[in-house]
Amino acid sequence: MLDYAALHSFREVLRYGSFERGAQALNLTQSAVSQKIKRLEQQVGGPVLVRIKPLKATPLGEQLLSHVQKVSVLEEQLTTRSGAADSASPLSVAVNNDVLATWFTEVMARFSEIRSNPVHIYNADQTQTRTLLQQGKVMACISQTGTPITGGQSARLGTMNYQLYASPSFIERYLKNDVSPERVMGTPGLLYDEFDATLLTDYQRECLDFAPSLTTCHWYPSSHGFAKMAVEGVAWALLPTLQVKQEVTSGQLISLFPSKQLGVPLFWHWTEQASSALGDFSQMVKHISKEQLKP
After folding, report:
1. pLDDT value at position 150?
2. Which of 87, 97, 169, 226 is 20 to 30 A (C-alpha) from 145?
3. Does the domain made of 1-86 have the CATH classification 1.10.10.10?
4. How far is residue 165's CA from residue 244's CA, in Å, rounded to a whole number?
């Protein structure tokens, strides 16, 4: 029989990335949490953590993480059916920056009207979120990959469209009358982080027929600041059309290639053993995405 108190501690230190922060979340001492993890490793016959910063699960640890996530869902289902639930269990969800910066606040607002479950959002690139679901770190995610994980389901949400934007001052300073791919890609641009490179290089290849080049790009990992940097004329930026409607209408941003846009398909993934709360959350995600995304 597995020690589920130790499993819970294991899940929390992974969630927070360290023994110290995990212990704080559990309201335990770091030593107590460390002892629980050691007992768990003795029980399962191998290490469950790679002790680096942030902490990572070993292959054995990933299996345990997936197991404890499923157990948590089953426990919530049982307490809900019996009417014995004293409090709403948290939902863990992985979502990418651009969705968080545009339409996911509406999902949270609508969900909070019908449920009291806290929602723990893991911020990750859309190419990485599905991996978090596979590892059992979250119960659901938004991904650009449609294939469901083993023991999971997926549904297409729609398409997030991106265009390349710059401010009038940037165009005047760097481009003058030459708004060509060759000219634009030789001027300062923006990347959110290393994962954002895939999105930009896809745009360069598919929309501009241009060999991928990132040498002139700043890195600026802030969704709000990312758009603001473009508005202030620091660089051009590949942004969701949803995010900058107001800036485009007011003339603060101009699409450099208005006939060229990159469509990124988005899919909602969830575990098959979903709780009723996650089921409600999933329905809300699907409903709001239909309002906000292109088919």
Report:
1. 84
2. 226
3. yes
4. 9
